[in-house]
Design goal:
The chain is α+β, with helices and mostly antiparallel strands and about 160 residues long. It folds into 3 domains: about 40 residues; about 55 residues, no CATH class; about 70 residues, no CATH class. The longest helix is centred in the first third of the chain and has 36 residues.
């Protein structure tokens, strides 16, 4: 009799336990994602690269504005694409096209700082997309190009500290 009551209680509460576990795991994952996204250079609606197409930098060697109609999300970040083909390439292999250092200026990251970028001021080296500040205070890519290997080492180290990656 006692085992029959225990079995009924178990059957009755199992769906509730499963649902509660799912809610807790989803909440933890959402909190972790939100925390991680704080380190990235994102605009409104978590838009990356100020709406420029991440695939175009690599495939076409130029900065091309994307459109909301050709958008895709990866890890909570929204990306716009200039064509359905570029969107498909990204969806198939997003890690290949993500901007380095969360989309912050690479030269500033070498100094441990997060600085806005001009999305048309970029460089692709060894399959990595580096973005740079360009404005009133100068062109950060010029400093980067003076000693790219040393700058990359410093920026990689800084990004690990900042992002926890």
């Amino acid at each position: 009799m006692k085992s029959e009551i225990s079995r009924r209680s178990f059957v009755r509460y199992t769906p509730l336990l499963v649902l509660s576990s799912f809610v807790l795991l989803h909440s933890a994952a959402s909190a972790a994602e939100a925390s991680d996204l704080k380190q990235y250079n994102l605009g409104a609606d978590k838009l990356a690269l100020q709406g420029f197409d991440p695939v175009a930098y690599m495939a076409q060697g130029k900065a091309v504005k994307g459109s909301k109609e050709n958008s895709a999300a990866h890890a909570g970040v929204t990306y716009w694409f200039s064509s359905a083909q570029n969107k498909a390439l990204f969806v198939a292999s997003p890690m290949k096209y993500l901007p380095t250092y969360g989309g912050w200026c690479a030269t500033a990251m070498a100094k441990g700082e997060k600085v806005e970028i001009d999305p048309q001021n970029f460089k692709v080296t060894n399959g990595r997309l580096f973005l740079f500040y360009k404005g009133l205070w100068g062109n950060a890519r010029k400093d980067w190009d003076k000693d790219e290997p040393a700058q990359t080492t410093k920026a990689d180290s800084s990004w690990k500290k900042i992002s926890g990656e």
